[in-house]
Write a structure and sequence with these properties.
Two copies of one chain form a homodimer. By secondary structure, the first copy, chain A, is an all-alpha fold. Chain A contains nine helices and no strands. Chain A binds a DNA duplex through residues 2, 4, 25-27, 35-39, 41-43, 45-47.
Chain lengths: 186, 186
DNA sequence: GTCTATATTCCGATAGAC
DNA sequence: GTCTATCGGAATATAGAC
């Protein structure tokens, strides 16, 4: 795994999160790296390859985070807080998250990228649903909805508030996150 | 206001909601209308003009709906239900809403389109915040968050669940909407 | 193995035909 | 007033140079 390859994935991800999948080009990346746009095709023959690799990298990062939290013995509150902090960071950096950004572009993605995005979203929702379920069993959380529905509502709130924050710039993202967690307190 | 002009706005809106602003072209619209792509430029000289007109049309539609509900004497529950039904219809038609779709593309929009999108989002959020506030004063709704935060949370849930539904296709959108309204019951 | 020169296609947009 | 022929540029992608 070359350093250039990783750099391309990182630049590509940032471009997707700031401008969207269909609004960035290989030229955007190559200019940044000081090479011709065709050089990127050596590492990723088509945009589909790049998009798919970006999503796969994110899945790996997320799974490592989950493993890390489990091995550290984080309880459900600590896990949820850690997850929400990712979104607070994205908000600070004026970026969206892949679910929201690629979700909007879903119908224009290639099959492999779609497949990985589906997989990523399922992994996130399954983890969140499971965390909410066990957290409620332990009376750490309190809520009345189906855990699956609650998971979708929480993820949706985090995802779309990033998008709305981009439109209305004086939104207090942390305060919204506070409202989300307040709604889970026993 | 010619019939062709209205047809272009309608087709353009559907393309933004299904494929995104940067993924549709004048060709997509002209093919549908059986003319050359340049014919669309007669009605909308640039894509910016078209995008801005699409958002303006939506603002007008939303304001007419609000006026209509007020003159019919809808209470806060009836108003919220009517609003949510727009999203259930969008979900059925496999479309997003403009806030979510153009929110993702925000950084790539022209100044005028941005301005109208900001105006539209403010109008929606102001109406929702005001409806939640008076509804709570009348004890029709019950919630603990700041009305402004609650409005953003509800809109975000509706917006991003459309996007997530596109990725994960077996999501019960109506059930999610039920969870949203259940959370407001006294 | 890494990158460039180049091809091809499609985009938004203009000038001008009817 | 409405639409077409056509342009200039940017997109993705290939073939081949180093």
């Amino acid at each position: 795994m070359s350093i250039t390859r990783e750099k391309i994935i990182e630049l590509g991800e940032n471009l997707i999160l700031s401008r969207g999948y269909n609004a960035f080009s290989y030229q955007d990346i190559s200019t940044e790296l000081g090479v011709k746009n065709a050089a990127i095709h050596y590492y990723f023959p088509s945009k589909e390859n790049l998009g798919t690799s970006i999503v796969r990298t994110n899945i790996q990062r997320f799974e490592e985070m989950i493993d890390n939290m489990h091995s550290r013995g984080f309880d459900e509150w600590q896990q949820l807080d850690t997850f929400i902090k990712i979104y607070i960071k994205s908000h600070r950096e004026k970026k969206l998250c892949l679910v929201g950004s690629l979700g909007s572009d879903f119908n224009t993605l290639n099959e492999n990228t779609k497949k990985e995005l589906i997989r990523m979203t399922e992994i996130i929702l399954n983890w969140l649903t499971s965390t909410l379920t066990t957290g409620r069993e332990k009376s750490i959380f309190k809520f009345n909805e189906e855990p699956q529905n609650k998971a979708i509502l929480i993820l949706s709130s985090l995802v779309a508030t990033l998008q709305i924050s981009r439109i209305i710039d004086n939104i207090d993202y942390k305060s919204i996150c506070q409202s989300i967690t307040d709604g889970l307190k026993p």
